[in-house]
Amino acid sequence: MSSEPSIFFSDVNERQGSFLRRTFLLGGATALGLLALGGRLGQLQVVQAGEYATLAVNNQFNFRLIPPPRGRILDRDGLVIAGNRPSFRVMVVRDETRDLDQTLDLLGRLLPDTLERRRAIVRDVNAAPRFVPVPVKSDLTWDEFARVNLYANELPGVMADMNEARYYPHGGVFSHTVGYVAKVSDRDVAAVRERGEAVSTLMYHPGFRIGRQGIERTLDPDLRGTEGGQRVEVDARGRIVGEDVEGSVAPTPGKDVVLTLDTDVQSRALEVFGEESGGCVVMDIRNGDVLCMMSAPAFDPNLFVSGVPGSVYRAWADYERRPLLDKTIYGTFPPGSTFKMTTALALLDAGVDPTERVTCTGGYRFGNRTFRCHKASGHGPQTMHDAIKNSCNVYFYSMCNRAGIDRIARTAEALGFHRTYDFGLTGQREGTMPSTEWKRHAFRNNPNPDARTWYPGETLSVAIGQGATEVSALQLAVMTARIANGRKAIEPRLIKSVGGVDRPSGAAVPDLPFSVQHLDIVRAGMAAVANDVTGTAYRVSQLGLGDIQMAGKTGTAQARSGLRRGTTVEWASRDHGLFVAFAPHDAPRYAIAVVVQHGGGSRVAAEKAREVMRVTLLKDPDMRTRIERPPPPEPVGPVEEEDPAAIAPPAPAPPQPRPTSVPTGPQPYLPEGGAQ
């Protein structure tokens, strides 16, 4: 008989005890777990409820930075010369795209020109902060804008909207003075840090533009405004589903800036320059307001807003006439004969009699060298008035050392040379005004002591605006304005107001250190230059505006040794042409300075100055009244009624003797040698 295996417990309670132990262990562990879970849930829901509620809200909403609208720049009449215009654009948000390369490929089908800038777009997108839209293309046409919106649902992370872009309605007319805006570069950020300032988050925004040149750069903090922000609600994929209006902050627009420039005068100046290179400055001699500050050739600042193509920028940089260079404040040139008024004032200050005559035979021998006059046959006997009118070099050669180089330098600085002006533009060059101290400093490292010594023969070149003398077009305009004003050391003013707050006038300045009699002598010589039939600028200085006439001074400065004129000469070797003037010469109101780089002579500059001055005068209501005023009627005697019975003609009247008395009372101002 087989037997089956059996289990026998020695103790009947042994099996029951083992079961109970296991039950208690598992139950205790479960209870502890439930207790810990309940405690943690209580902590999250009660103790830390507020903290996690805030985190949840922050995860639900994004705060997107909004650049402020840039302040406008206006001319003296309120015309916008730098403003903002609507612009359609398409943008990409990196954090909302699943595959950036695929998204850009799809965009390239809609906007083929974005493929050319693919590398730059990827760089901008990767450098942008999180959830910040990066512009891929601006200034979309309506068809492009509609095409992108049509396929927007198939392009994750792509959005198209309308924003404001900087706009310069007059193109290159104000390009150098007003400047332009461009994308923020690493150098801009580094410059802020070097000044010890905190870098604003706005500077990292891809849509923000910073002032790069001219007024846009100088007044950038005022024009920039204050950024705002849009608090938007997003879903789990980062897409916008709503906006928290109460949590959003509207940006504050920048301040409007009003300049003293006149759009019509500035436009005419650029027009008359054509393809020439140079600068033109017009000032109101009463208050220093700058009506024109034009540099040619110009460039279109609108191209910098969205980025200048590399080929275009290289063409500008390589062009010999330097369109990117402001020739009114940065370009400096020898003043030529326009400097002779400065030398004349220095001679008068030294006690030279203006009626003393110097005979010009076409050259002046000094030491072992002959200094030539521009008229090879000579001008004959010349007083100071004649020397200014005829631009006689020999007169100033023979007289200049009576004043000496240091007195000439002091006179030049009193007239506004060899300095910069705090009037709203950086990048000015102060030029060069030779003196004994200047030479000691300039050649201080030369071991030869003779190289640091000033010799009288060097004064001859400076006296006629050559040698080491260099000035800017702005400085020439200031000199002319001060001579024309005759009383105040007028300062140029370019910024009229910022945010509605007026800037100080250029007339709040000290008096000139010259006597009225000396200034009258110089002004009379300038009037003869433009109005005496033998003056050097008579044929090109007639305004044709009634009885209004200019007083001016021509100048030709050598760019190479020896005079070179004419279109057959290589452009870079031609002489510079200069002309300065003020009008009306009997009641001065406006001063002008024109520099034509390698223009070939002063005639070209004088012709341009005449056209710009005509527009300036015609825009002045007082001058228009004077121009339109009818001439006074000719005096006539009493008219007797004719006797119809008289057949024979009346007998001729006997000749009357000429009056011997001199009329009294105020007489019209006519400079010596002036046109009657």
From TrEMBL:
<keyword id="KW-0133">Cell shape</keyword>
<dbReference type="InterPro" id="IPR012338">
    <property type="entry name" value="Beta-lactam/transpept-like"/>
</dbReference>
<keyword id="KW-0573">Peptidoglycan synthesis</keyword>
<keyword id="KW-1133">Transmembrane helix</keyword>
<keyword id="KW-1003">Cell membrane</keyword>
<dbReference type="GO" id="GO:0008658">
    <property type="term" value="F:penicillin binding"/>
</dbReference>
<keyword id="KW-0997">Cell inner membrane</keyword>
<dbReference type="InterPro" id="IPR006311">
    <property type="entry name" value="TAT_signal"/>
</dbReference>
<dbReference type="Pfam" id="PF00905">
    <property type="entry name" value="Transpeptidase"/>
</dbReference>
<dbReference type="GO" id="GO:0071972">
    <property type="term" value="F:peptidoglycan L,D-transpeptidase activity"/>
</dbReference>
<feature type="compositionally biased region" description="Basic and acidic residues">
    <location>
        <begin position="621"/>
        <end position="631"/>
    </location>
</feature>
<dbReference type="InterPro" id="IPR005311">
    <property type="entry name" value="PBP_dimer"/>
</dbReference>
<feature type="compositionally biased region" description="Pro residues">
    <location>
        <begin position="647"/>
        <end position="669"/>
    </location>
</feature>
<keyword id="KW-0472">Membrane</keyword>
<keyword id="KW-0961">Cell wall biogenesis/degradation</keyword>
<dbReference type="InterPro" id="IPR036138">
    <property type="entry name" value="PBP_dimer_sf"/>
</dbReference>
<dbReference type="GO" id="GO:0006508">
    <property type="term" value="P:proteolysis"/>
</dbReference>
<dbReference type="InterPro" id="IPR001460">
    <property type="entry name" value="PCN-bd_Tpept"/>
</dbReference>
<feature type="region of interest" description="Disordered">
    <location>
        <begin position="621"/>
        <end position="676"/>
    </location>
</feature>
<dbReference type="GO" id="GO:0009252">
    <property type="term" value="P:peptidoglycan biosynthetic process"/>
</dbReference>
<feature type="domain" description="Penicillin-binding protein transpeptidase">
    <location>
        <begin position="278"/>
        <end position="613"/>
    </location>
</feature>
<keyword id="KW-0378">Hydrolase</keyword>
<dbReference type="Pfam" id="PF03717">
    <property type="entry name" value="PBP_dimer"/>
</dbReference>
<feature type="domain" description="Penicillin-binding protein dimerisation">
    <location>
        <begin position="66"/>
        <end position="243"/>
    </location>
</feature>
<dbReference type="GO" id="GO:0009002">
    <property type="term" value="F:serine-type D-Ala-D-Ala carboxypeptidase activity"/>
</dbReference>
<protein>
    <submittedName>
        <fullName>Penicillin-binding protein 2</fullName>
    </submittedName>
</protein>
<dbReference type="GO" id="GO:0005886">
    <property type="term" value="C:plasma membrane"/>
</dbReference>
<dbReference type="GO" id="GO:0071555">
    <property type="term" value="P:cell wall organization"/>
</dbReference>
<keyword id="KW-0645">Protease</keyword>
<dbReference type="InterPro" id="IPR017790">
    <property type="entry name" value="Penicillin-binding_protein_2"/>
</dbReference>
<keyword id="KW-0121">Carboxypeptidase</keyword>
<keyword id="KW-0812">Transmembrane</keyword>
<dbReference type="GO" id="GO:0008360">
    <property type="term" value="P:regulation of cell shape"/>
</dbReference>
<dbReference type="InterPro" id="IPR050515">
    <property type="entry name" value="Beta-lactam/transpept"/>
</dbReference>
